[in-house]
Design goal:
Layout lengths: L2 H8 L12 H9 L4 H16 L43 H29 L7 H27 L12 H8 L4 H29 L3 H34 L48 H14 L7 H18 L10 H6 L4 H4 L5 E3 L2 E3 L1
Antiparallel strand pairs: 1-2
Helix pairs in contact: 2-3, 2-4, 3-4, 3-5, 4-5, 4-7, 5-8, 5-9, 6-7, 7-8, 7-10, 8-9, 8-10
Organism: Oryza rufipogon (Brownbeard rice)
Pfam families: DUF455
Protein name: DUF455 domain-containing protein
């Protein structure tokens, strides 16, 4: 599908092409759109239409699922380098360093738009995921597109623009490694990379504030930070869902790696409730960490309700421990190296991500011995 023609049809611009019919059709349209601003705009339109019910189906069950591209269309205006050759961003002590940090953040958010729509297109239909899965990741995609738009606008206000500096596409490298497995994609992209963003964002905010750029600091603190917590929460929530669904013998969970066997440990009759996103105590921005500006806190409860309907929330401590062991195995197989502390335990907890999930992954295992 050609990006230009599809964009015109989707936006009602009078072109001959028809608007996409399902959410997966929209996702493929967005992944085929190279211009980052248009990509974000179409993503916002698709998510809005889907969430208000104007798009009737997540996918068409009567036709074979059309695979997404191996690599999304991307603007040639952004010069890409291997991660090892990407220039250092600095610590925000100069105006130039702060521009580099801001450009890097905008670049990450643009890739996050593609990652969100890719998970919808690549895994949603083949695995027959419930409607709440599509709700969650449509909202995530919409958030990421808005984040890119506001950061790109801030770059222009500061006399620069997105594409003024080189960048790397390391995020898509990990997406390629997990393209065959939704379990691995959720673990690496949403529970490792997204959570790492939560770890470093407070320091990034402090650097902009210390450099006198209060406007960017507030943008990151009040808009992007709280919404990124809900994105990590979505990864944790649907990782649990897949483990539990696999244990229940659902044949559509076939993209779970066969080498990962810990899910077979899950008992069929747990007694506890699935862990919910917890709010953070206190006043000010920290008290808002578990809430999103567009009602994503309600989405958390909606998905928990759907899990209850599927009879998948009756998990006790032993089941949670088995899910966590599965998470450790998946991350060790698909993520290179240990996780880097210090961890933002408060924000991770708000995402339903307890230390037992990630602290054991902060050490290397050498010949059977764990070393820091």
């Amino acid at each position: 599908m050609e990006a230009a023609g599809g964009a015109g049809g989707a936006s009602g611009g009078g072109g001959e092409s028809q608007p996409p019919k399902t959410l997966v059709d929209w996702a493929l349209e967005i992944l085929g759109t190279a211009d980052p601003d248009e990509k974000a705009r179409l993503g916002d339109l698709a998510a809005t239409e889907w969430l208000r019910g104007a798009i009737p189906l997540p996918y068409d069950p009567s036709r074979p699922a059309r695979p997404p591209p191996d690599r999304p269309a991307r603007s040639a205006a952004v010069r890409l380098l291997p991660p090892s050759r990407a220039p250092k961003l600095g610590k925000g002590g100069s105006a130039q360093s702060r521009l580099a940090l801001l450009h890097s953040l905008a670049h990450t958010e643009s890739w996050a738009v593609d990652l969100s729509w890719d998970i919808v297109a690549r895994f949603g239909a083949p695995l027959r995921m419930p409607r709440e899965f599509f709700d969650d990741f449509a909202r995530v995609a919409q958030d990421e597109g808005r984040h890119f738009a506001v950061l790109s606008a801030r770059l222009r206000e500061l006399g620069s623009h997105y594409g003024a500096l080189p960048a790397h596409d390391g995020l898509w490298d990990s997406a390629t490694r997990t393209s065959h497995s939704l379990l691995a994609r959720l673990a690496v992209e949403h529970c490792v990379h997204e959570a790492r963003g939560l770890d470093v964002l407070p320091t990034t905010i402090s650097r902009f504030r210390a450099g006198g750029d209060e406007q960017t600091a507030k943008l990151l603190e009040d808009v992007i930070y709280p919404e990124e917590i809900t994105h990590c929460a979505a990864g944790v929530r649907w990782f649990r869902y897949l483990c539990l669904r696999s244990r229940n013998g659902d044949p559509t969970a076939s993209s779970i790696p066969q080498t990962i066997t810990q899910c077979s440990e899950l008992p069929r009759d747990g007694t506890g409730d699935i862990h919910k996103v917890e709010e953070v105590e206190g006043d000010g921005p920290k008290a808002e960490l578990a809430q999103a500006s567009n009602g994503d806190d309600k989405t958390v409860q909606q998905v928990e309700d759907e899990l209850a309907k599927c009879k998948l929330v009756d998990i006790g401590d032993d089941v949670e421990a088995a899910v966590i062991r599965t998470f450790h195995s998946v991350v060790r197989e698909y993520f290179r190296g240990p996780l880097k502390p210090p961890f933002n335990t408060e924000a991770r907890k708000a995402a339903g991500f307890e230390p037992a999930w990630y602290e054991p992954l902060a050490v290397k295992e050498v010949e059977g011995q764990a070393v820091e």
